[in-house]
Amino acid sequence: MSSSLRAFLRSIWNLRLLLLFPLFTEPLAILLTLLLVVFYPVARVVLLVYWTVCFLDPVPHDGGSDFFWRIGLTQIIRGGSWWKEALRFGSISIEKTVDLPNDKVYLLGYHPHGVMPAGIANLCTDGSNVSKLFPGIRIQVVTLKLLWFIPFWREWMYLHDVTVASRGSICKSLAKGRSVCVIVGGAEEALETKSGRMRLVLRKRKQFFICAVKAGASLVPTITFGENEVYNTLSNPPGSFLRKVQDYFMSTLTFSVPLFYGPVMALPLLPKRVPITTVVGSPIQTTRSDSPSPEYIDQLQEEYIKGLEKLTEEHKARLGYENLKLEIVA
């Protein structure tokens, strides 16, 4: 067998690793559920019971489950060889600028959202050895409430110590001494995804800063270079017909629908092979308060934005994005 053929077959085989990422796993979980419901009528009853349990289950809204973490199963799943191989194959890595003492609690802001944040795997798995980078710090990633109603995917999130993206859940996790990572810009920022630029939705996210202050948690700005380069997106400037449709779906469904495609039009979900590097910045100390003043929150927000700008300027040229400009659009 020729070396070129072996390399081609190896590349095809490595594509299986994409199935670990939400953009592929979530649709597969939905498809599997639909197939079970269509071909096995009893599954319809099971699904109704399952959704009832999901609706009544307080755990995701209470800072997530501690059970899998205590018995060590989360650490095994997050640190599995499959994740290490997947992140190595996807050139997904993480860097720190300073040490984070493990006697404190941190609220990390992840930027930008991208079409589907691939770099978040640096923080919700141990594929890039984040546990060695920040020893003794338990980081929980939060995600959309709607995803907690998808069978199979819900259990996968439990195993990875993921919890619901709500103020109550975030505050409870921080109060329990866990650090939390929030994709601050959310669905609205996903619609700003475009190769070659980084437009963030941040000024309107006051609750992010309020949660940190109420828990006395340090804010940690985090930038992922390459996140917006993974897919090409259709132009959707504010006011355009496409953007109005996307904004309508976002306000109705609570998630956005960016229109994107990869380097191969016939395989639109196939991402571009670009390095994705998450750079974790210096912590910003907060003064704990149950009723922080608007002025203090604004001050923290400006300090945080300056931290993001500093991270961008210090690392963009080294990581291949010399002309990248950080913009706060909302």
Could you describe the 3D structure shown?
The chain has 330 residues and is α/β, with parallel strands linked by helices. It has 14 helices and 11 strands. Strands 1-10-7-2-5-3-4 form a 7-stranded mixed beta sheet. Helix 10 (167-175) runs parallel beside helix 12 (206-215). The longest helix is centred in the C-terminal third of the chain and has 22 residues, at 294-315. It is globular, with a radius of gyration of 20 Å. The relative contact order is 0.15.
Helix-strand category? alpha/beta
How many β-strand stretches?
A: 11
Gap between N and C termini = 55 Å
Shape field: globular
> How do the strands line up in the largest sheet?
1-10-7-2-5-3-4
Indicate the low-confidence ranges by residue numbers: none
Portion in helices: 40-55%
Question: What's the alpha carbon Rg, rounded to whole Å?
Answer: 20 Å
User: What is the average of the pLDDT values?
Assistant: 91
Order of helices and strands: HHHHHHEEHHEHEHEHEHEEHEEHE
Name the beta content range: 5-15%
Continuous helix count: 14
| Main sheet overview | 7 strands, mixed
